[in-house]
Amino acid sequence: MQKYSVFNLIKNAFKGHKDWEVAWKDPTPKSEYDVVIIGGGGHGLATAYYLAKEHKITNVAIIEKGWIGGGNVGRNTTILRSNYMHDENGLFYEKGMNLWKSMSQELNFNVMYSPRGIINLAHSDAQMNAYARRGNSMRLNGIDAVLLGREEVKKIVPVLDFSENVRFPIFGALMQPSGGTARHDAVAWGYARQADSMGVDIIQHCEVTGFDIVNGKAQGIQTSRGNIKAKKIGLCVAGNTSVLADMLNITLPIETHLLQACVSEPIKPILDHVVTFGAGHFYCSQSDKGEMVMGGDLDGYNSYAQRGNLPTLQHVLTEGIAMLPFLSKLKMLRTWGGIMDMSMDGSPIIDKTHIDGLYLNCGWCYGGFKATPVSGWTFAHTIAQDKVHELNAGFSLKRFNTGHLIDEKGLGTKTWIS
Amino acid sequence: MLHIKCPHCGLRSQNEFAYGGDGTVKRPELNKKVSDKEWDTFVYLRKSPRGKHTELWHHVSGCRQWIKVERDTVTHEIFKTAKVNEDI
Ligand SMILES: Cc1cc2nc3c(=O)[nH]c(=O)nc-3n(C[C@H](O)[C@H](O)[C@H](O)COP(=O)(O)OP(=O)(O)OC[C@H]3O[C@@H](n4cnc5c(N)ncnc54)[C@H](O)[C@@H]3O)c2cc1C
Ligand SMILES: [Zn+2]
């Protein structure tokens, strides 16, 4: 594989940039693989990469119905964090935070990792208490957390609305300084390029339409480009999980819902951190291009539409203006949506299934981008060793039956009430 | 914006409604022994179909009645609405 470096950049500049190698090939599917990963999003690509790199399993195909990066991995608002209270989540995402730190070097691809800090605003004493508790739980798990008072927040993010007569005054905030953002497309492309170089077949425009299961054992998949045999099959299809589960006669604790995001016209640097509103659901960061990147609530009813509805956007941006009044003067550049696999306790599932050789990775809700490296890392382990890693042991499918839920927000099963 | 025809009030904008989820889910019968599996299925497991979905909506800023709606989860086309005690 050709290395990306400043020397190669200069060398290729002399040749008019005509001789760059393709970043990944476009193979026709073979008739059989050791492992087939369904879904060429961030999680599928990362899984294939770690299967090859950590477990030396390289006879692997990624089967993607569209193009890699066309799903949620290319639609999210790129927030990275591990500010969770429960051990299962905290330790898992913190492993992820460590993988983010070295990702650009490891993949030889600039993922524009930017640990700029994430600030969750609090608007009442009760919320400050809850954040103090969460921050303490985080620190017990070795995760960085700082409780900020109103004056400290004012110093760090002066553009927030600190005026006297607001409906939701800012009392303070919980900050995770190591939280931040990364460039989502680069993450998909970086994993794809490395996986391809180790022998993984990335097969795009190939839709999985069925499964071959014989005597409770996975044998292969049916696709729009023919049947493919596989000893092991991993599902990483995010918002389409229920559709594939239906082909397998499995009913999951998952509903598919739509989440929107939007960006404003680009402006000069004004917001240095990721900031979330505490009296509703709105968050904001500023991209390197200068756009304000914003998101918030789910549309609120089951949806596979991949395109959102205006009432939700209006509601979310009303909260945005309450937090950052200057937003009202900006023009909207783009809005879009992605379909999320909302699990019934808000936490993911990375597990084996009752079908031998069939593995499940789903339930990422609206927070799976930050999990991309650690999800791939643990899922590759689960598939290669045919057993869960201790980091994903809590994310079992049976927890809904046994009552061992990981209900971080205490919301229960009404996933649309985000 | 969805426009939902409330069987009591007529065509109304989505803003007047709250969503109630899958309308086909049945609670295990009262006063009967219920297995863990039945509870699991009732509380957590959902088909979440891509296509026709029978769901509950609450006309919360209108007549405050719960209603049934049959909607396509891809196109958002609404095929039918009914009172909550009616079949759809
Ligand atoms: C608007 C928005 C904002 C978000 N913001 C954040 C954020 O700030 N931070 C964060 O951590 N997370 C965020 N998320 C969530 C995050 O994007 C997802 O949880 C994560 O990307 C899901 O994993 P993935 O990348 O593998 O999914 P995807 O990229 O969706 O990959 C799944 C792939 O499976 C393919 N597929 C589906 N069915 C089939 C089939 N039958 N055959 C073959 N292929 C199939 C799809 O085409 C798709 O490419 C956000 C999501 C959205 C939509
Ligand atoms: Zn009504």
Question: Can you describe what's shown?
Answer:
The complex is a heterodimer of chains A (418) and B (88). Chain A is α/β, with parallel strands linked by helices and 418 residues long. Chain A has eleven helices and 18 strands. In chain A, helix 2 packs parallel to helix 7, helix 2 crosses helix 10 and helix 3 packs across helix 10. With 88 residues, chain B is mainly beta. Chain B is 9% helix and 38% strand. Chain B is built from one helix and six strands; from the N terminus they run βββαβββ. In chain B, the strands form two sheets. In chain B, strands 3-4-5-6 form a four-stranded antiparallel beta sheet, with no helix packed on it. Chain B has a two-stranded antiparallel sheet with strand order 1-2. The longest helix of chain B has 8 residues. Chains A and B meet through helix 8, strand 12 and strand 15 of A and strand 3 and helix 1 of B. Bound molecules: flavin-adenine dinucleotide and zinc ion.
Mean pLDDT score of chain A: 96
How far apart the termini of chain B lie comes to 23 Å
| Number of H- or I-type helical stretches of chain B | 1
Radius of gyration of chain B: 14 Å
Largest contact between chains: A-B, 25 and 26 residues
Which class of secondary structure composition applies to the elements of chain A?
A: alpha/beta
Task: Give the N-terminus to C-terminus distance of chain A in angstroms.
Answer: 44 Å
The helix/strand series of chain A, from N terminus to C terminus, equals HEHEEHHEHEHEEHEEEEHEEEEHEEEHH
Main features:
heterodimer, A: 418 residues, alpha/beta, eight-stranded mixed β-sheet, 11 helices, 26% strand, B: 88 residues, mainly beta, Folate-binding fold, two-stranded antiparallel sheet, 9% helix, binds zinc ion
Quick overview of this protein structure:
With about 425 residues, chain A is an alpha/beta fold. Chain A has eleven helices and 18 strands. In chain A, about 50% of the residues are buried.
